[in-house]
Amino acid sequence: xxxxxxxxxxxxxxxxxxxxxxxxxxxxxxxxxxxxxxxxxxxxxxxxxxxxxxxxxxxxxxxxxxxxxxxxxxxxxxxxxxxxxxxxxxxxxxxxxxxxxxxxxxxxxxxxxxxxxxxxxxxxxxxxxxxxxxxxxxxxxxxxxxxxxxxxxxxxxxxxxxxxxxxxxxxxxxxxxxxxxxxxxxxxxxxxxxxxxxxxxxxxxxxxxxxxxxxxxxxxxxxxxxxxxxxxxxxxxxxxxxxxxxxxxxxxxxxxxxxxxxxxxxxxxxxxxxxxxxxxxxxxxxxxxxxxxxxxxxxxxxxxxxxxxxxxxxxxxxxxxxxxxxxxxxx
Length: 331
Description:
The protein is of the alpha/beta class. It has helices at 27-32, 34-47, 51-57, 60-63, 66-90, 106-113, 119-139, 152-166, 187-199, 220-232, 254-263, 271-280, 294-302, 323-328, and strands at 11-15, 99-102, 142-148, 170-177, 180-186, 204-207, 242-243, 250-251, 269-270, 285-288, 307-310.
């Protein structure tokens, strides 16, 4: 394994958001796990469309569409979670996470895992979130860019300068770890901020292939739509605390969860703070539940002493021989 697994007691489940999808992301687990196949079957039934086909056979182009990408990633993550529970039940172990978090859209998956939403509610909410974001993006086109090698404080200063110069918004959308930030906003200030970041000595400035300004005020209309939907759902107190993307506080009540899911569309994802807060509360094993290993790599960069494993990783994930090392290290 890339990281030596140390003894652990407190499990944190973390769920990825957009950007973790890839063609065939759900096929492998569906072939092996009956519980995972049931998740895909239920998803097709709830959406009245073959979302499973997109998770098994969807092209990269199809999966890049926000309205497809979000429910497909959600369903694949829930399938991996079902497979993990199935495995540990077979070993006579009950899956008992100590704390749960999701990155961006992954907060909805986390809310289902914690019992605040049912699977059906979470899936329909994620589909509507994708639709509303698409709609908001058409009405107020924007974009996003990754800035590597500058501190978050410097990136904030750059965004404020660009916003003032261009008379429109650009700001930090995600702080993933030290020196890795994503900015989001209207096109003119976005381009200006990219120029200023390059002049400030950023290691890399990369325009992301997306026409939606996620986690910015440009998503205000989408946030209003999600607020109406969430008020109509029967959101419950989470069984385990959820960790806020917005400010890393622990969410323990129904009102706090509703507020988080509503406001996260227009506010930044402070992922580094969220991981540090989970560590401060004693989490010592992080399992990334879903496609890809983006969050696992970020957690290792934030705190290499923390155990972190991607459940879908071919070499150390659930379907590998090395996953037994994770289970054997549980105290």
